[in-house]
Amino acid sequence: MKWLVPCLVLCLALLSGGSASAAPGSSRCLSSVTQAPVRLEGRLTVERHQHPNGQEMRPFVLVLPRPVCLTFETFADQPPSTVDSVSRVQIAGDFNVDAVRKAVGRQVAVTGQLFGEETAWHVTPVLILVATFELVSSASQSSAVEVVRGFYGALSRADGAGVQSYLVEKKRNRGGYTIDGISKYYADMSPRLEVTSLAPAGEDTVEVTYRYGTRKGLICTNKAQVTTVRDGDQRLVEAVRADKDSCRSP
């Protein structure tokens, strides 16, 4: 496999040559219909799936900081396709698997062409064919408050893969933190989980209060202490200690 991080000259040419970018905060619809490369930033994760033939799949998936809409070409005689509210994008193409694996859990930028899922090996509605892959500075998201805000944002969207991207490695796919378990549990809430306050309780700890609705029609509130730790150049959630839920009829 070839490692596709280009030299500085090529990288600058790609990024200055009309590529669309979905950096944190972007809400516009991105398109690779004109063959211009699209640049996506997010937290890199590795998911676990099973192919219909029984083979285990471990695709690399980019979890975006917030949902975006993406437009891409389909077949030559078909109009472009647009998918709204995309929060996960599988990366595909010829890249160095070992090098990419080392970036799991970190903020990365991927540049390339978008295309839609076509086979059972594809686990997201939209994929990106990698042209460049690079680590990006996580300084803007290194505080405990920002990490915890992102963590609870993923919980509120029932985004299991997004939640895992904020967890320390030993917590991923363990206990109640499996991708499917998280997605199903939080998707069943009605209304969905909503953070009502979030404040630092120390350099590494954040106090969070939140509310959510149950399938029985109750409204519940709670408070949690969330502990984060530094892991290299990033900060991740290590532990969540929640009080007992207080539930009532609306």
Which features does this protein show?
OB fold (Dihydrolipoamide Acetyltransferase, E2P); 5-stranded antiparallel beta sheet; 2 domains; 14 strands; single chain; 5-stranded mixed barrel; 250 residues; Nuclear Transport Factor 2, Chain: A; alpha+beta
Question: How many β-strand runs?
Answer: 14
**Mind telling me the CATH class of the largest domain?**
Mainly Beta
Q: What is the CATH architecture annotation of the largest domain?
A: Beta Barrel
Count of alpha/pi helices: 5
Q: In percent, how much strand structure appears in the residues? A: 35-45%
Largest sheet: 5 strands, mixed, barrel
- The third-level CATH topology of the largest domain is OB fold (Dihydrolipoamide Acetyltransferase, E2P)
Distance between the termini: 57 Å
Structural domains: how many: 2
Mean pLDDT rating? 81
Helical content class: 10-25%
Strand-pairing-aware structural class: alpha+beta
Low-confidence stretches: 1-19, 23-27
Over the alpha carbons, how many angstroms does the gyration radius reach? Answer: 19 Å
Q: What best-fitting shape do the alpha-carbon axes yield?
A: globular
Order of helices and strands: HEEEEEEEHEEHHHEEEEE
Order of strands side by side in the largest beta sheet?
3-6-7-9-8
